[in-house]
Amino acid sequence: MAQYEEFTLSQGADLAIEVHLVNGQGDPKDLTNHAVAGRLKKSYSSLTHTDFNAIITAPPTDGIATLSLTNVVTETLEKGRYVYDVNISFTDSGGDVIVERVLEGRLQVTPRVTPAPVGSGGTD
User: Fold this and answer.
1) How many Cα neighbours within 13 Å face the side chain of 11?
2) What integer pLDDT is reported at residue 113 of this predicted model?
3) Rounded distance, CA 124 to CA 115, Å?
């Protein structure tokens, strides 16, 4: 079962979430030959989405994945509540892709007050 977390994001700010994964014994999960993906949507049924930049941090044996959104991307998000999830996946010895949801929750986007700097992609 995935860990549930709620986050708050200021519209127009950079976001980075570092996810530390552990195995059943509490040791770092070996993410060698794994991939990570994360997605943000206004609702579960929404057809539009924003994908996180998602990487497994070297070395993969440390079990750390980093998800991020740039300020240019978050500037385009409407204020309000979003849902998100994060999956890791790998291909097993039989050629099947195994997917595990490791993190899910809600993300609240708060509106900006200060105008975006010139050239940042903001529209204020």
Assistant:
1) 20
2) 78
3) 5
φ, ψ (nearest 5 deg) of residue 47:
-85, -20
Spatial distance between the Cα atoms of 36 and 15, rounded to a whole number of angstroms: 17
Residue ranges of domains in the chain: 3-110
d(CA 66, CA 24): 21
DSSP string, 93-122: TTS-EEEEEEEEEEEEEEPP-SPPPTTSS-
Superfamily of segment(s) 3-110: Immunoglobulins (2.60.40.10)
**Stated length of the chain:** 124
Q: Which residues of 72-86 are buried (b: 16+ CB within 10 A; e: fewer)?
A: ebbbebeeeebebbb
CA angle, residues 17, 71, 19, in degrees to nearest 5: 5
Q: State the amino acid at position 23 in one-letter form.
A: N
Q: What is the pLDDT of residue 121?
A: 58
Kindly give the parts of the chain with pLDDT less than 50: none
Instruction: Count the neighbouring beta carbons within 10 Å of the beta carbon of residue 6.
Output: 9
